[in-house]
Amino acid sequence: MKVDLYPLVFKPIVKDRIWGGTKLHSLLNKNILSQTAGESWELSSVPGDVSVVANGVFSGSTINELIVKYPSEILGTKVYGQFGAEFPLLFKFLDAKEDLSIQLHPNDELAKKRHDSFGKTEMWYVMQADAGAEIIVGFKEKASADEYLHHLKNKSLPSILNIIPVKKGDVFFLETGTIHAIGAGTLIAEIQQTSDITYRIYDWDRTDAHGNTRELHVEQALDAITYDVVASQKKYETAINNSNPVVDCSYFTTNIIPLDGKMNLAKNGTSFTVLVCTEGSFTVITDSGSEFAFAMGDTVLLPAALTDFELVGKATLLEIFIS
User: For binding Zn(2+), which residues are annotated in this chain's numbering (predicted)?
Assistant: First the structure.
């Protein structure tokens, strides 16, 4: 039986965080009442947090259920061959009203050995930043485990880390092992491997409403940290109605599309494509002529079986696939 696949969006999985705020509601129009909503998981197959379709005839089905039924049609022939019936990426929006903890993620080898999980290579796209907003990415200068532990003990770790002012449109690619922290006043679109493994190493000595501190992973982090200086910020072109390359790694490829009018998007069936709308609104027109309207804050999965689209509107889009 032939199935008519279509662009899919999913019900947000909202995570309250000690550092969260209200921008997911006020700027991205998520139906959230919490004053401390830190994360909206837009497309996830992480156990316990599996996304549910929010639109069309598949509404109510999980991404995992659809992949089991239509593996290569959803994932793409190459992605299905590589990962099996598992969605390999996780898409989130993050609202940092306060500074996030200083943290890092293990590589695939360590994550598999310790947690039976993938590692967590990720990228950030800054959707909005308050005046003076900053992030932390890596060390200012090449460091060592001893130096790191010394500054951690003396609560001076930020003094040896690379603190970068951020603005809307900035992109950072964070390889595993890179120490990082999203700073207060920043709204981020995040693309990452399907993993929820984080080593938190410093949390600004803050406590929750009950006076409890959050767990740290100082010892686990020691052999997972990259002590070299890293160059994480990515520059890119902004040619209108074009897929402008930003990140191309073995885990995912991300292009930026400044859409103004109409643009054709052609695919070959080897990978799904995800469009994250970071600004404006747009319509996807499939080769059958069906139209699907989306806006800022929408994360849209284009199944691999759909290979020809027309994009119409005025928007900034992140285009993500596995090459």
Answer: 105, 122, 180
DSSP 10: B
214 is catalytic: no
Phi then psi for 309, rounded to 5 degrees? Answer: -135, 155
**Measured distance CA(322)–CA(250) in Å, rounded:** 8
Residues 6 or more apart whose CB falls under 8 angstroms from that of 136 comprise 102, 158, 161, 162, 163, 164, 179, 180, 181, 183
Active-site residue (options: 17, 200, 206, 214): 200
Write the secondary structure of 20-65 as one string of H (helix), E (strand) and C (coil).
EECHHHHCCCCCCCCCCEEEEEEECEECCEECEECCCCCCCCEHHH
Sketch out the chain's domains with CATH numbers: 13-234 (2.60.120.10), 244-321 (2.60.120.10)
Annotated binding site for Zn(2+): 105, 122, 180
Those residues whose C-beta lies under 8 Å from the C-beta of residue 84, and which sit 6 or more positions away, are 71
2: pLDDT strictly greater than 60: no
Q: Is 108 helix (H, G, I), strand (E, B) or coil?
A: helix
Contact yes or no for 102/181 (Cβ under 8 A):
yes
Q: Is 145 helix (H, G, I), strand (E, B) or coil?
A: helix
3-state secondary structure of 5: coil
Confidence category of residue 1, pLDDT binned at 50, 70, 90: very low
Binding-site residue ranges: 105, 122, 180
Q: Which of 58, 96, 28, 59 is nearest to 277 (CA)?
A: 28
Contact 285, 309 (CB under 8 A): yes
Report the residue count for the chain.
323
Check if the beta carbon of residue 31 is closer than 8 Å to that of residue 81.
Answer: no
Q: What is the pLDDT of residues 239-272, one digit of tens each?
A: 999 999 999 999 999 999 999 999 999 999 999 9
Tens of pLDDT, residue by residue over 270-302, are 999 999 999 999 999 999 999 999 999 999 999
Q: Band the pLDDT of 146: cuts 50, 70, 90.
A: very high
Q: Which two tokens stand for residue 124?
A: 């950030």
